[in-house]
Amino acid sequence: MGHSHHFHLDQGDHSISVNVGPGKNGEIELLVNGKVVAFQKEHGSGTSLLSGELPEEPARPFRVRIRQPHLVPSILRCTLELDGVEQPMPERSML
User: Fold this and answer.
1) CA-based angle 65:31:54, to the nearest 5?
2) CA separation for the pair 18, 8 (Å, rounded)
3) Which H or E element spans position 63?
4) What are the CA-CA distances from residue 24 to residues 20, 33, 45 (Å)?
5) Quick one: pLDDT at residue 1?
6) How many other β-carbons are positioned within 10 Å of the β-carbon of residue 16?
7) Distance between CA 37 and CA 28 in Å, rounded?
8) CB atoms < 10 A from the CB of 12, how many?
9) What residues of the chain score a pLDDT lower than 50?
10) pLDDT value at position 4?
């Protein structure tokens, strides 16, 4: 049984967080400024993609990609794609 993962990145005045539930059947939440903007009930091996917007004028759409390794045990990775630029989201430990 796995554990939950929490990724976070500040983007200007905004906070983007991704919470991934334990195991391959855990849910994924995408939060902007502490509010859930996208949700996926479960994830498996491979890549999950969630979309959101930064609340600016005009709104700035972005995507978050969560990669779960297929065959080789390895760490979960989370990447933010905003304005055509991909940026790794660091995992933060939650007590």
Assistant:
1) 85
2) 6
3) strand 60-68
4) 9, 26, 7
5) 43
6) 23
7) 11
8) 9
9) 1
10) 87
**pLDDT the model gives residue 2:** 65
Single-letter amino acid, residue 67 = R
Neighbouring C-alpha atoms within 13 Å toward the C-beta of 36: 8
| Percent of the chain whose predicted confidence (pLDDT) is above 70 | 83
Residue 75 near residue 68 (C-beta atoms within 8 A): no
CB of 69 closer than 8 Å to CB of 45: yes
- The DSSP H or E segment spanning 79 is strand 77-82
Q: ∠54-51-17 over CA atoms, to 5°? A: 65
* Amino acid sitting at position 20: V
First to last CA, the chain: 18
* Cα→Cα distances 29→19, 67, 73, Å: 5, 14, 23
